[in-house]
Amino acid sequence: MWKALDVAEWKERRRADLAGVREAVAGIVEAVDQDGDEALYALTKKFDRIELEDLAVAPEEFEAAYDEVDEALVDALADAEANIRRFHELQRNRSLWLEEVEPGVVLGVKTTPLDRVGAYVPGGRAAYPSTALMTTVPAQVAGVEEICVCSPPPIHPLTLVALDLAGVDECYRIGGAQAIAAMALGTETIDPVQKIVGPGNVFVTAAKMMLRDHAEIDFPAGPSEIGVLADTSADPVFVAADVLAQAEHDPHAGCVLVTTDPTLPARVGAEIRRQLETAERREIIEAALKNSGYVVAADFDEAVVAMDEIAPEHLSIQVADPMAALNAVHHAGSIFVGPYTAVAFGDYASGTNHVLPTAGYARTYSGLDIHHFCKTSSVQMLSREGAEALGDIVESLATAEGLHAHANSVRLRRQRRK
Amino acid sequence: MWKALDVAEWKERRRADLAGVREAVAGIVEAVDQDGDEALYALTKKFDRIELEDLAVAPEEFEAAYDEVDEALVDALADAEANIRRFHELQRNRSLWLEEVEPGVVLGVKTTPLDRVGAYVPGGRAAYPSTALMTTVPAQVAGVEEICVCSPPPIHPLTLVALDLAGVDECYRIGGAQAIAAMALGTETIDPVQKIVGPGNVFVTAAKMMLRDHAEIDFPAGPSEIGVLADTSADPVFVAADVLAQAEHDPHAGCVLVTTDPTLPARVGAEIRRQLETAERREIIEAALKNSGYVVAADFDEAVVAMDEIAPEHLSIQVADPMAALNAVHHAGSIFVGPYTAVAFGDYASGTNHVLPTAGYARTYSGLDIHHFCKTSSVQMLSREGAEALGDIVESLATAEGLHAHANSVRLRRQRRK
Questions:
Q1: What are phi and psi of A87, to 5 degrees?
Q2: Residue A191 pLDDT more than 80?
Q3: Is B404 labeled as catalytic in the residue annotation?
Q4: Nearest residue of chain B to residue A332 (CA atoms)
């Protein structure tokens, strides 16, 4: 159950095989494209076994949701919302910066939000109010005016409360590939969005990948992962607790310990078995532990290389010199430093985002942040002096590239008498 | 030729129809996937009519390229390279920031470069040394270690000089969809890349879109565009010169003037006809002008709304209060402010990037910048005190979401006696 891992094999196994669902998803996408809302009602009846009366959640339903939720939970959600907002506000760039790089040549960047985005919040059997916050609050902080949420029915009251706390009121009870198709293509009820963010199952992910010509996505994401980078200073109780927390997400979750201490895997293994005895989601955890294991590295550098190969969704650093490790690693969705920084803090409370790339995609993609909801325009502003200073470069290169009207557009400026 | 435009129709027409080439591109991708290098040699013979001896450009070929290029041109390229580097260096973020958001809770972001990226540089009949700089220099500034360039044969000496000036030595003489397939999937000679950037024809764009499961891309891009936002203060000579410069790129280029001055379109039209008389790429320009025209807006606000609808690749601001216009517009690839800021300066000399989203994609995507070559990891570091402060939120929300091991991972930390 808790065994030595081969990193290459791990990498191979983590990429979700979307091929198996691609045909089914293509059929769903086509149905939504052809029949719009009608297809959404039919597919929801088929897959969620619910006959919807309305796609959109009505304003009074948000109100009513509070009555079904414990007050302490509303407070916890409100705290989480405030912390997520706080962290994402720290990511803001100046909306416009300009700098005179040489006399008469002012360059800069203007940052603007997307107009309309879609957030997918998983649901169905479970409630994910935290994901409702993680997908919508960064969009708000970025300045996005229209945020459209889809979540499979029945939508849990906690999720509605979370959306209401965030100040999001456009929410449709549709899940799966049909929700992605509706947001990407638009229907009678749902206006199309520019970008779709948020986690989902293989159907959701396959639909997101398939519809990127219509709506951009955050990144492909699959089952959750933790990588623990540890030495002799690590506490096996904490390491085991974080492993179990990751494993309880999903039978396909993956946990890997990379350590320079050859005695640590056995100590963590024993602690995993002990904590497993009282775990409530024991079957899921045991299934996930089959995808999990450890790597013993000869030294710190080798451990870092192995962890960078893995590029885990969550990286827990449990070593004597954590700042050195933080500086050394390159690839991870989110990094948790030191014994008290349980990964669960990032999932719920610290304000960092839990929508993160998995399966090694952290090598290429950033976790969800406000930059996913912004785009930039470069800006240039030349005076006559600046145009004169840069004129020769343009005239000479444009002529070499055979673009004579380019050269002429600069020549005309230079010839103009003041 | 120079006529009133309907903005909705313009938007409709700008999106390139990739459907027509999709089958051909899928065949090319499959061939490269199956036969690797062999397919590259065969496809280059078929499409470029060149029998390659080697895919890779040898080190001595870069050296030799200087002998075939005018010295003044090398200087202009070196100046352009330095200016592009200067502007992109201004975009750098701190590689790690950490902030204590409350006692014991330190949050931050670590920024790291991608490991290996691909740059597509168009070529064939023409030389695009400027695009060689625009695609590779930002990657270098971001810290990318491996930059792989593909360009169709024969590669012009100017392009090789540009790559050498930038310090890029991995270059393959392959073009079209087969180049994108080779970089996304890898062959015996070419290692796969994480992301492919750079402009290309519809085959290149279709291949980039098709292979996004394997390699991320910058954004879809099509024929070049200019939008000029102008009032009575605009100089028709300069406006016409910038329109012609854009139009000479491609028969499918598009130029639109949005103005509050109803007399300006005719004055610009007359100036276009005058400048066209001596234009060297007259046929291309005349074809592009058929896709072009003007919009007369009732007032400034209406003009800004129309221009935001268009979201042009290049936006030229030619109004009496340019800073107000710069602040008001939302969507443009790159913004050129004032009479002396010819768009051609951004194409070659000022240092801003000319690889930009077209066809309204500026609503969703940023032009190429160093952030395309970076990704981030969020960081969190909690002390015992910080864990205590955030503990209740996690325990309460994790329990509500049914994730008991998450709650336990925090509870164990809080219970630990110092």
A1: -65, -40
A2: yes
A3: no
A4: B377
